[in-house]
Automatic annotation (TrEMBL):
Transmembrane domains' residue ranges: 20-39
The name this protein goes by in its record: PilD-dependent protein PddA
Coiled-coil blocks: none
Keywords: Membrane, Methylation, Transmembrane, Transmembrane helix
Superkingdom in the source lineage: Bacteria
Keyword flag Thylakoid: no
Pfam families on file: N_methyl
An annotated GO BP: protein secretion by the type II secretion system
Cellular component annotations (GO), alphabetically ordered: type II protein secretion system complex
Length: 274
Protein backbone atom coordinates (compact mmCIF):
# COMPACT_ATOMS: atom_id res chain seq x y z
CA UNK A 1 0.00 0.00 0.00
CA UNK A 2 1.38 3.41 -0.94
CA UNK A 3 1.61 5.73 2.03
CA UNK A 4 2.51 8.85 0.16
CA UNK A 5 3.87 10.24 -3.06
CA UNK A 6 7.62 9.90 -3.58
CA UNK A 7 9.48 12.80 -5.11
CA UNK A 8 12.43 12.46 -7.43
CA UNK A 9 14.68 13.15 -4.48
CA UNK A 10 13.18 10.14 -2.71
CA UNK A 11 11.25 12.10 0.00
CA UNK A 12 7.53 11.87 0.73
CA UNK A 13 5.56 14.94 -0.30
CA UNK A 14 3.48 16.82 2.35
CA UNK A 15 1.95 20.17 3.22
CA UNK A 16 4.22 23.13 3.25
CA UNK A 17 4.12 25.66 6.09
CA UNK A 18 2.35 28.16 3.83
CA UNK A 19 -0.30 25.58 2.90
CA UNK A 20 -0.91 24.80 6.58
CA UNK A 21 -1.28 28.49 7.37
CA UNK A 22 -3.77 28.87 4.52
CA UNK A 23 -5.84 25.94 5.83
CA UNK A 24 -5.78 27.33 9.39
CA UNK A 25 -6.79 30.76 8.08
CA UNK A 26 -9.73 29.27 6.18
CA UNK A 27 -10.88 27.36 9.27
CA UNK A 28 -10.59 30.52 11.41
CA UNK A 29 -12.56 32.47 8.82
CA UNK A 30 -15.30 29.85 8.73
CA UNK A 31 -15.47 29.84 12.52
CA UNK A 32 -15.71 33.63 12.57
CA UNK A 33 -18.62 33.44 10.12
CA UNK A 34 -20.42 30.56 11.81
CA UNK A 35 -20.08 31.51 15.50
CA UNK A 36 -22.33 34.62 15.37
CA UNK A 37 -24.92 32.62 13.44
CA UNK A 38 -24.77 29.83 16.01
CA UNK A 39 -25.04 32.39 18.81
CA UNK A 40 -28.12 33.94 17.20
CA UNK A 41 -29.68 30.51 16.72
CA UNK A 42 -29.06 29.70 20.38
CA UNK A 43 -30.58 33.00 21.52
CA UNK A 44 -33.57 32.47 19.26
CA UNK A 45 -34.13 29.02 20.76
CA UNK A 46 -33.87 30.46 24.28
CA UNK A 47 -36.35 33.18 23.41
CA UNK A 48 -38.84 30.59 22.11
CA UNK A 49 -38.53 28.58 25.33
CA UNK A 50 -38.94 31.77 27.38
CA UNK A 51 -42.10 32.70 25.48
CA UNK A 52 -43.49 29.24 26.05
CA UNK A 53 -42.75 29.51 29.76
CA UNK A 54 -44.42 32.90 30.07
CA UNK A 55 -47.42 31.64 28.10
CA UNK A 56 -47.86 28.86 30.66
CA UNK A 57 -47.49 31.29 33.56
CA UNK A 58 -50.07 33.68 32.09
CA UNK A 59 -52.48 30.81 31.46
CA UNK A 60 -51.95 29.56 35.02
CA UNK A 61 -52.82 33.03 36.34
CA UNK A 62 -56.05 32.95 34.33
CA UNK A 63 -56.97 29.47 35.57
CA UNK A 64 -56.27 30.54 39.15
CA UNK A 65 -58.62 33.49 38.67
CA UNK A 66 -61.37 31.24 37.30
CA UNK A 67 -61.08 29.01 40.37
CA UNK A 68 -60.92 31.89 42.87
CA UNK A 69 -63.90 34.17 42.26
CA UNK A 70 -62.23 36.20 39.51
CA UNK A 71 -59.38 37.23 41.83
CA UNK A 72 -55.72 37.51 40.86
CA UNK A 73 -52.84 35.44 42.18
CA UNK A 74 -51.52 38.72 43.51
CA UNK A 75 -48.35 39.37 45.44
CA UNK A 76 -48.19 38.90 49.17
CA UNK A 77 -45.25 38.94 51.53
CA UNK A 78 -46.63 36.13 53.67
CA UNK A 79 -44.51 32.98 53.40
CA UNK A 80 -46.21 30.40 51.22
CA UNK A 81 -48.58 33.00 49.78
CA UNK A 82 -46.48 34.60 47.03
CA UNK A 83 -48.07 34.87 43.60
CA UNK A 84 -45.78 32.24 42.07
CA UNK A 85 -46.67 29.82 44.87
CA UNK A 86 -50.38 30.38 44.37
CA UNK A 87 -50.22 29.30 40.72
CA UNK A 88 -47.61 26.54 41.17
CA UNK A 89 -50.20 23.74 41.04
CA UNK A 90 -51.27 24.99 37.58
CA UNK A 91 -47.76 24.81 36.11
CA UNK A 92 -46.56 21.40 37.09
CA UNK A 93 -45.83 21.61 40.81
CA UNK A 94 -47.46 18.77 42.74
CA UNK A 95 -47.48 20.71 46.00
CA UNK A 96 -48.67 24.32 45.90
CA UNK A 97 -47.57 24.97 49.49
CA UNK A 98 -43.96 25.17 48.35
CA UNK A 99 -42.31 26.59 45.28
CA UNK A 100 -38.99 25.18 44.13
CA UNK A 101 -37.22 26.80 41.22
CA UNK A 102 -35.54 23.54 40.31
CA UNK A 103 -38.91 21.79 40.07
CA UNK A 104 -41.05 24.37 38.29
CA UNK A 105 -38.86 24.93 35.25
CA UNK A 106 -41.34 27.22 33.50
CA UNK A 107 -40.44 29.98 35.96
CA UNK A 108 -36.83 30.00 34.73
CA UNK A 109 -35.77 31.78 31.53
CA UNK A 110 -32.92 29.90 29.79
CA UNK A 111 -31.23 33.24 29.06
CA UNK A 112 -30.99 34.14 32.76
CA UNK A 113 -28.32 32.96 35.16
CA UNK A 114 -28.89 31.30 38.51
CA UNK A 115 -28.53 33.69 41.40
CA UNK A 116 -26.39 32.67 44.35
CA UNK A 117 -24.69 34.80 46.94
CA UNK A 118 -20.94 35.19 46.33
CA UNK A 119 -18.70 33.19 48.63
CA UNK A 120 -16.66 36.24 49.70
CA UNK A 121 -19.65 38.06 51.26
CA UNK A 122 -19.83 38.00 55.08
CA UNK A 123 -22.85 36.11 56.46
CA UNK A 124 -24.15 39.32 58.03
CA UNK A 125 -24.56 40.81 54.53
CA UNK A 126 -25.94 37.78 52.71
CA UNK A 127 -29.50 39.06 53.09
CA UNK A 128 -28.68 41.84 50.63
CA UNK A 129 -28.21 39.23 47.94
CA UNK A 130 -31.34 37.26 48.74
CA UNK A 131 -33.55 40.21 49.67
CA UNK A 132 -32.43 42.90 47.21
CA UNK A 133 -35.37 45.17 48.03
CA UNK A 134 -33.67 45.83 51.36
CA UNK A 135 -31.28 48.81 51.64
CA UNK A 136 -28.05 47.90 49.88
CA UNK A 137 -29.52 44.86 48.14
CA UNK A 138 -28.40 44.37 44.54
CA UNK A 139 -28.88 41.97 41.67
CA UNK A 140 -27.45 41.66 38.17
CA UNK A 141 -29.79 42.30 35.28
CA UNK A 142 -29.06 38.92 33.71
CA UNK A 143 -29.65 36.91 36.90
CA UNK A 144 -32.71 35.15 38.26
CA UNK A 145 -34.23 36.68 41.35
CA UNK A 146 -33.89 34.70 44.56
CA UNK A 147 -36.62 35.13 47.16
CA UNK A 148 -36.36 33.02 50.32
CA UNK A 149 -34.60 30.27 48.39
CA UNK A 150 -37.03 30.33 45.45
CA UNK A 151 -35.60 31.33 42.08
CA UNK A 152 -37.39 32.71 39.07
CA UNK A 153 -36.89 34.85 35.96
CA UNK A 154 -40.29 36.50 35.66
CA UNK A 155 -41.97 39.34 37.51
CA UNK A 156 -45.64 40.09 38.13
CA UNK A 157 -47.39 43.29 37.17
CA UNK A 158 -48.20 44.21 40.77
CA UNK A 159 -51.06 46.48 39.74
CA UNK A 160 -53.05 43.23 39.56
CA UNK A 161 -54.00 42.74 43.18
CA UNK A 162 -57.04 41.44 44.96
CA UNK A 163 -56.66 43.20 48.25
CA UNK A 164 -53.45 44.70 49.58
CA UNK A 165 -54.12 47.90 51.48
CA UNK A 166 -50.48 48.76 52.14
CA UNK A 167 -49.84 49.15 48.41
CA UNK A 168 -53.08 51.10 47.93
CA UNK A 169 -51.97 53.60 50.54
CA UNK A 170 -48.56 53.93 48.92
CA UNK A 171 -49.58 54.19 45.25
CA UNK A 172 -53.30 55.07 45.30
CA UNK A 173 -56.07 52.45 45.12
CA UNK A 174 -57.52 53.97 41.94
CA UNK A 175 -54.60 52.56 39.93
CA UNK A 176 -55.20 48.89 40.77
CA UNK A 177 -57.08 46.16 38.97
CA UNK A 178 -58.90 44.10 41.59
CA UNK A 179 -60.43 41.37 39.40
CA UNK A 180 -59.65 39.75 36.07
CA UNK A 181 -62.97 40.99 34.66
CA UNK A 182 -61.83 44.59 35.24
CA UNK A 183 -58.97 44.28 32.75
CA UNK A 184 -59.58 46.38 29.66
CA UNK A 185 -57.53 46.18 26.49
CA UNK A 186 -54.19 44.42 26.69
CA UNK A 187 -52.79 44.71 30.19
CA UNK A 188 -49.37 43.13 30.88
CA UNK A 189 -49.57 40.23 33.33
CA UNK A 190 -46.05 38.90 33.76
CA UNK A 191 -42.72 39.07 31.94
CA UNK A 192 -38.94 38.95 32.04
CA UNK A 193 -37.82 40.73 35.18
CA UNK A 194 -35.05 40.87 37.77
CA UNK A 195 -37.50 40.86 40.66
CA UNK A 196 -40.69 39.05 41.70
CA UNK A 197 -42.88 41.99 40.73
CA UNK A 198 -43.04 45.72 40.06
CA UNK A 199 -45.39 48.69 39.66
CA UNK A 200 -44.43 49.99 36.18
CA UNK A 201 -45.87 53.18 34.75
CA UNK A 202 -45.19 55.53 31.86
CA UNK A 203 -44.08 58.16 34.36
CA UNK A 204 -41.18 56.01 35.56
CA UNK A 205 -37.51 56.83 35.12
CA UNK A 206 -36.11 56.08 31.64
CA UNK A 207 -32.55 54.71 31.62
CA UNK A 208 -30.20 55.98 28.95
CA UNK A 209 -29.27 52.38 28.17
CA UNK A 210 -30.68 48.98 29.17
CA UNK A 211 -29.97 47.70 32.65
CA UNK A 212 -27.07 45.25 32.49
CA UNK A 213 -24.92 45.95 35.54
CA UNK A 214 -25.51 45.01 39.17
CA UNK A 215 -28.20 47.39 40.38
CA UNK A 216 -30.07 48.06 43.56
CA UNK A 217 -33.76 47.18 43.59
CA UNK A 218 -35.40 50.41 44.69
CA UNK A 219 -38.92 50.53 46.12
CA UNK A 220 -39.48 54.08 44.79
CA UNK A 221 -42.36 54.45 42.35
CA UNK A 222 -40.13 56.26 39.86
CA UNK A 223 -37.75 53.28 39.65
CA UNK A 224 -40.23 50.44 39.07
CA UNK A 225 -39.77 50.06 35.30
CA UNK A 226 -36.07 49.32 35.82
CA UNK A 227 -37.07 45.83 36.95
CA UNK A 228 -38.42 45.10 33.46
CA UNK A 229 -36.23 47.25 31.19
CA UNK A 230 -33.42 44.69 31.01
CA UNK A 231 -31.43 43.57 27.98
CA UNK A 232 -32.24 39.87 28.30
CA UNK A 233 -33.32 39.18 24.71
CA UNK A 234 -31.43 41.64 22.51
CA UNK A 235 -33.14 44.83 23.70
CA UNK A 236 -36.45 43.00 24.18
CA UNK A 237 -38.30 41.21 26.95
CA UNK A 238 -41.14 38.70 26.69
CA UNK A 239 -44.50 39.66 28.17
CA UNK A 240 -47.82 37.85 28.64
CA UNK A 241 -50.94 39.99 28.28
CA UNK A 242 -54.47 39.79 29.63
CA UNK A 243 -55.71 38.32 26.33
CA UNK A 244 -53.23 35.48 27.04
CA UNK A 245 -51.04 36.43 24.09
CA UNK A 246 -47.25 36.56 24.52
CA UNK A 247 -45.07 39.06 22.69
CA UNK A 248 -41.46 40.09 22.47
CA UNK A 249 -41.59 43.78 23.41
CA UNK A 250 -38.84 46.30 22.72
CA UNK A 251 -37.60 48.01 25.86
CA UNK A 252 -38.57 51.44 24.57
CA UNK A 253 -42.18 50.28 24.15
CA UNK A 254 -42.59 49.29 27.80
CA UNK A 255 -43.54 52.89 28.64
CA UNK A 256 -46.43 52.76 26.15
CA UNK A 257 -48.26 49.81 27.73
CA UNK A 258 -51.40 49.89 29.88
CA UNK A 259 -49.83 48.68 33.13
CA UNK A 260 -52.52 50.13 35.45
CA UNK A 261 -55.84 51.97 35.25
CA UNK A 262 -54.19 55.41 35.25
CA UNK A 263 -51.03 54.63 33.29
CA UNK A 264 -49.42 57.58 31.59
CA UNK A 265 -48.70 56.36 28.05
CA UNK A 266 -45.37 57.50 26.59
CA UNK A 267 -44.30 56.87 23.01
CA UNK A 268 -41.24 59.14 22.93
CA UNK A 269 -38.89 56.91 24.92
CA UNK A 270 -35.47 56.18 23.45
CA UNK A 271 -32.95 53.79 24.98
CA UNK A 272 -29.51 53.57 23.45
CA UNK A 273 -28.44 50.09 22.50
CA UNK A 274 -25.18 49.00 24.11
Amino acid sequence: MRRGLITKAGHKSGFTLIELLVVISIIALLMAILMPALGKAREQAQRVVCKSNIKQVGTAMNLYSMDNEDKFASMSWQSGDYWFQKISSYIGDDDDSEFKGDRVKVMLCPSAEEHYAPTDVPPSKLRNYFYPEMPGGTIKADENWNWRGNQGSYGLNNWLTSDYQEWEKQFGKERFYRKWSELEGRVPLVGDSIWVGAFPDGENYVPTEPETRRIQISGDFDQQMRRFSIDRHNMNINLAFSDLSVESVELEDLWSLQWNKLTKIRRDVEIEKR
